[in-house]
Amino acid sequence: MASSSEESYVDRAMAGPTPDNPSLSLKTRLKRAAFFDKREREVAEGNAEPVDHSAGLPEAGVEEGFDLPPEEDEGAGDRPSV
């Protein structure tokens, strides 16, 4: 869990996929991260119950673990690296 002195879920989502937020889509990661940041604030205020961080993830991803996609060579493909 992140505290005010640690990185927020949104900060981590901006850095890339994580086991708790594995989507390759930044928009999807930010939406999920914003929910967990908000929920963490509500839990700290006593207004909500904590949520399991694997909530809403597909069962296959939760059971099999998290694997980052393989790194591509710089010359591979026409897409710029992110």
Description:
The structure is a single chain. The chain is mainly α and 82 residues long. It has a domain at 9-64. 40% of the residues lie in helices and 0% in strands. The protein is built from three helices and no strands. It has helices spanning 9-15, 26-45, 59-64. Helix 1 packs antiparallel against helix 2. The longest helix has 20 residues, at 26-45. The model has no long low-confidence stretch (mean pLDDT 77).
Task: Briefly summarize what is shown.
Helices cover 40% and strands 0% of the residues. It has helices at 9-15, 26-45, 59-64.
Biggest pleated-sheet summary? none
Shape: globular
Beta-strand content estimate: under 5%
List unreliable stretches of 5+ residues: none
Topology, number of strands: 0
The N- to C-terminal Cα distance equals: 27 Å
Number of helices: 3
List SSEs in N-to-C order: HHH
Helix fraction by DSSP (H/I, runs of at least 4):
40-55%
Structural class: mainly alpha
**Rg value:** 15 Å
Q: Oligomeric status of the shown chains?
A: single chain
Task: Please tell me the overall pLDDT.
Answer: 77
